[in-house]
Hints:
By secondary structure, the protein is α+β, with helices and mostly antiparallel strands.
Amino acid sequence: MLHEAAKGQRSGQSVIKLVFDVKDVEAFRVQCGKAGLKFGPIHEADGYLFANAKDPCQNSIQVSSRAFRIDC
């Protein structure tokens, strides 16, 4: 899934963010941390969780459980 990055991006910054769907953001974040990829804090929005990181090339990435959200 691709999301447009924040409108406040400066010149030279990425204007897209790669978002990877995972069922369990917390477990995925811990697993990645053990492999050396550090995610920021977990955020909650509209019934799903997400966390942001930078890949080794400094591209913005995100893991999100949004695709697995159960709408009420």
